[in-house]
C-alpha cells in the first residue's frame, strides 16, 4: 500500500492507505480526528467539510492521493480551545441541536469569513446553503455567522 505525507493541523503525518481512500476516512480512521463527520458520502451535505489550504473542501470525495502538499485543517485544528470567532459565535447563539453537522458548518463559515469578512446576510445565506442541517437550525446558523462577521 502507498504511503502519504500529510500536513494536518500543522503536524506532519505519514499514513499508509489505498490511493482511493477518501481523506475523510484517513482523518477519522487512521488519524483519529473524528470531529469531521460522514453524512452522505457523495458531496451533497457538507458534514465532512475541512480546509485545504484554507479553502472549504469536502473530504468525503477527495482521494488521499489527490491531497499532495496541501495543508489540511480539521475542526480540531481550527483554534486553540474553541476560540475561533465562529466557534465563539456558535456558543453565544447556542446553535447546535443534535450537533452532527456543526463541524462542517463551522469549517464552511470560517473559510467563507476569511474571504469575506463583512458579508451581507444574503451572502451568508448563499455561502452556507450547501451545508445541510437535519434539525433545520438554519436561522441560528446564519445568526452565528453574521455575529462572527461583526
Ligand atoms: Fe461529504 Fe456529505 S459526507 S458532503
Oligomer: single chain
Placed side by side, the strands forming the largest sheet appear as 2-1-5-3-4
Number of helices: 5
Q: What is the fourth-level CATH superfamily of the largest domain?
A: Beta-grasp domain
Q: State the separation between the terminal residues, measured CA to CA.
A: 48 Å
N to C succession of SSEs: EEHEEEHHHH
How large a portion of the residues is in β-strands, by DSSP E? 15-25%
Pfam families: Fer2, Fer2_2
Keywords: 2Fe-2S, Iron, Iron-sulfur, Metal-binding, Oxidoreductase
Protein name: (2Fe-2S)-binding protein
Domain 2Fe-2S ferredoxin-type: 2-78
Descriptive report:
The chain has 150 residues and is of the alpha+beta class. The protein has two domains: 3-77, Beta-grasp domain (Ubiquitin-like (UB roll)), CATH 3.10.20.30; 85-149, [2Fe-2S]-binding domain (DNA polymerase, domain 1). 34% of the residues lie in helices and 15% in strands. A hairpin with a 2-residue loop joins strand 3 (49-52) and strand 4 (55-58). Helix 2 (85-93) crosses helix 5 (138-149). The longest helix has 14 residues, at 102-115. The chain is globular and about 45 Å long. The mean pLDDT is 97. The structure holds FE2/S2 (inorganic) cluster. InterPro entries: 2Fe-2S-bd, 2Fe-2S-bd_dom_sf, 2Fe-2S_ferredoxin-like_sf, 2Fe-2S_ferredoxin-type, 2Fe2S_fd_BS, Beta-grasp_dom_sf, Diverse_Oxidoreductases. Pfam families: Fer2, Fer2_2.
